[in-house]
Amino acid sequence: MRCPLVVTHNLRWMSGLSAIQYLDLGNADLHREVDWLQIMSKFPSLSELYLFYCQLDSLNPSLGFVNFTSLRVLELPGNHFNHEIPNWFSNLSISLLRLNLFNNSLKGNIPPSLFNLEKLEFLDLGLNSLNGPLPSSVGNLSRIRTLFLDQNQLNGTIPKSLGLLSKLETLFVGENSLTGTVDEGHFRKLSKLKELYMSKAPLFFNVNSNWVPPFQLDRAYMSSIKIGPNFPSWLQSQKSLSFLDMSMSGISGKAPGWLWNLTSSITCIDLSNNHIECNVSDIFLSSTVELFNIANNSFYGPISTFLCQKKIRKNKLEILDASNNLLSGELSHCWKYWQSLIHLNLGSNNLVGRIPYSIGALVNLQSLRLQNNSICGDIPSSLKKCSNMRLIDMGNNHLSIIPLWIGELTNTILRLRSSEFEGYIPQQICQLSSLRVLDLANNSLSGSIPNCLKNISAMAFPNSYDISFFSMSFQCLCDYKYYVENVQLVPKGKEMEYKENLKLVRLIDLSSNKLSGSIPVEISDLFELRFLNLSRNHLIGKIPEKIGSMKELESVDLSRNHLSGEIPPSMSNLTFLSLLDLSYNNLSSRIPSSTQLQSFDALRYIGNLQLCGDPLPKSCTIEEQSLNKSPIGSVEDDSENSSFYIGMGVGFATGFWAICGALFFNRTWRHAYFRFADEIKDWIYVTTMIKMNLLEKLRVCLSCENSCNPRQLQLEADINKLFLYQGC
Q1: What is the pLDDT of residue 533?
Q2: What average pLDDT does range 614-641 have in this prediction?
Q3: What pLDDT score was predicted for residue 640?
Q4: The whole model's pTM is what?
Q5: How far is residue 6's CA from residue 4's CA, in Å, rounded to a whole number?
Q6: At CA 450, angle to CA 508 and CA 605, rounded to 5?
Q7: Span 438-447, mean pLDDT?
Q8: Residue with the larger pLDDT of the pair 704 and 197
Q9: What contacts 107, CB < 8 A, 6 or more positions away?
Q10: How far is CA 627 from CA 548, 608, 620, in A?
């Protein structure tokens, strides 16, 4: 019986199915069924039970016995048991062939009795929280073919008894905390081993240089374990390899020539993050290879020799990553042989010359990375043919202008920083509606910032972008190799590498250019933007008033421009802001009060002579303190002030021409006005001189008391008043 997508709260409806042998309730909602185990044990004929992802909460570890005498298959992955493995599993040794407890939040040690299930052929304990050592009783699983112990917290050494499992074909022990040395003894009888997963564990794979393994591996996952420094010579005996991952394994020295003739059926080769030396002219890839990753090594030689080998023919290569090596020369014109490429990364090498027009033959290309080279000239228009393009990184080169056709692509990431670009930012860049990273920093771009940036919907609306590119799964035969793009960005003034979290980034960096004009107010419509850097340009005008509506902003750098006016009060609404730099502008008035804005160092505001308030040491005057009200209030105040000044201007003009017009057109009034003005002038002069004379006599009096009489001074003052009255 198979009942997919069943929604039920109990299993009482099964009471009449006493003879049931096969039951599949996968994905049924059984989170309220606490007695499911006791119910299932009432069916003595039950042979296969599938309860994967049923939201079960317990395996009832307190039970001492479960009556599953006929059970051969027990599939329980994807539940929420969150306790230790119960001992009653050891009672199933009579018939159990397959036990799957994958991804169940199980914890504690693996009970040694679990490995007494002598008939077991398949055991999956992967992706739990199991800890402690791996019991040596694992060697009792004499019939086991598939053993998954990966993605736990197992520690200690791997017991040598593991090498006794003569029928073992698949062994996964990676992503644990297992330590110690793995040597020939651990593989003594594993003649049927086809798939070995030991990645991401602090193990030391130490075997003799002349060791010939008893097995022929199909897939070897040995990333992030210690294999080197010498290249493992035992690989030469493996004639059936289809997948080889020895990345980050400490291998150094020259790669042996036999490596490239290892097998004609290999599909994936990952030797990245080692210290391997090899001339790429000596590499000839089989046409079956789909992934070739040699990044972060010491491969050298002209790239064109590798791409244009005489024996070359159309192949299946989809991912080529040769970044961070010593490759040299110009890019070849042989791209027609590599039309299956999806991801191409040749960044951080010594490549020179122009990007050839023939690169447009890579019509399936999704990411093109040529950063940190010495490539020059134009970006060829043939790239328009790459209609699936998602990422372009050509930073740190010697290019010319940003092409107008750039808007015809479907880019999610456009990184062109530090590449000597000149000219304007084309308006067509706004057609990239899926763009999430726009990095044009440190170039010589001039002109204004396009106000159409608001059309980039991926920065304006949540969930308006396709994240499949960032989490793309790459298939090598039946295995999925996750190839995560990584990009170097400068989100908060410091260069950082973004990998898995790249899908969370929304960034505009136009810093260190020659951009002029004002910051377009439309930029405040990019509500999902997290990082904004417009520093070191020639921008003028005000900071957009509605910048506070960009609630997701984490970093804003507008420093070293010529911005003026007040800091918008709405900026106090940016609660996620962790970096703000407004230094060296012409901003004025009081810094708005908020928890965020006052938490930044005063250095983030210096260079604005008219700016005041905390955290600056300069206090604000009463007039300045009255400014920076709420955004709505500011608009209303501006309106009232404008009406006041307009009325005052009209009144002044009316009064001015009413008086001056009369004087200009009436001669009698004009003469009378100027005669009156002359008399006023004379009166002011005489009064001033008399007062000064009186003050002088008072000074002499104070210096010589006997010769001066206050009564005499009072008399003289009265005479002066009389004189003024008679004279004026």
Answers
A1: 97
A2: 59
A3: 45
A4: 0.80
A5: 6
A6: 55
A7: 97
A8: 197
A9: 82, 83, 84, 128, 129, 130, 131
A10: 17, 17, 10
Q: Which of 279, 415, 434 is nearest to 345 (CA)?
A: 415
Report the chain's C-alpha Rg in angstroms. 41
Exposure on the CB side of residue 236, measured as CA atoms within 13 A? 12
In the block, residue with structure tokens 């009471």: 15
Element housing 123 (H / E): strand 122-124
Say what the pLDDT of residue 654 is.
Answer: 58
List the beta bridge partners of residue 129. 107
d(CA 600, CA 606): 12
> Alpha-carbon distance 398 to 252, whole Å?
33
Q: Give the Cα separation of 588 and 567 in Å (integer).
A: 8
Distance CA 616, CA 604 (A): 9
Model pLDDT for residues 71-112, shown as the tens digit of each residue? 899 999 999 999 999 988 887 877 899 999 999 999 999 999
Strands 531-533 and 555-557, by their bridges, are parallel
Q: Are 441 and 417 in contact (CB under 8 A)?
A: yes
H or E segment and range at residue 269: strand 268-270
* pLDDT, position 673: 62
Give CA separation, 653 vs 179, 644, 648, 650, in Å.
92, 14, 9, 5
CA–CA distance from 121 to each of 103, 142, 167 (Å)?
19, 9, 9
Give whole-number Cα distances, 6 to 14, 42, 51, in Å: 14, 21, 11
User: Cβ neighbours of residue 520 under 8 Å, at least 6 residues apart?
Assistant: 448, 449, 450, 451, 453, 544
Please state the rounded mean pLDDT for residues 324-333. 94
Please choose, from the candidates 183, 173, 221, 175, the residue with its C-alpha nearest in 3D space to the C-alpha of residue 201. Answer: 175
**What kind and span of H or E run contains 210?**
none
Interatomic CA distance for residues 389 and 412, integer angstroms: 8
Give the three-state DSSP class for 647: helix
Tokens of 128: 């739990």
Within 8 A by CB and 6+ apart from 715, the residues are: none
Q: With b meaning 16 or more CB within 10 Å and e meaning fewer, what string describes 16-32?
A: eeeebeebbbbbbebee
46 pLDDT exceeds 70?
yes
Parallel, antiparallel, or unpaired for β 170-172 and 146-148? parallel
Lowest mean pLDDT among 211-225, 312-326, 692-706: 692-706
Range 499-521 average pLDDT: 92
Give the residue from 476, 483, 492 showing the smallest Cα distance to 604.
492
User: For residue 700, what is the DSSP state?
Assistant: H
Burial (CB count <10 Å: 0-12, 13-18, 19+), residue 334:
middle
Measured CA to CA, the distance from residue 489 to residue 201 in angstroms comes to 30
Q: Is the pLDDT of residue 633 over 70?
A: no
What are the distances in angstroms from CA 327 to CA 352, 445, 678, 718? 10, 30, 94, 107
Cis amide bond preceding 617, omega within 30: no
How many angstroms separate the Cα of 385 from the Cα of each of 362, 363, 371?
8, 6, 21
Beta strand 48-50 pairing with 22-24: parallel
Taking only the tens place, the pLDDT of each residue in 445-469 is 999 999 999 999 999 988 765 555 5
Distance CA 368, CA 400 (A): 18
Higher pLDDT, 488 or 632: 488
What tokens does 517 get? 């004009």
**pLDDT surpassing 50 at residue 233:** yes
Q: Do the Cβ atoms of 191 and 215 come closer than 8 Å?
A: yes
Number of other residues whose CB lies within 10 A of the CB of residue 276: 22
pLDDT at 661 over 90: no
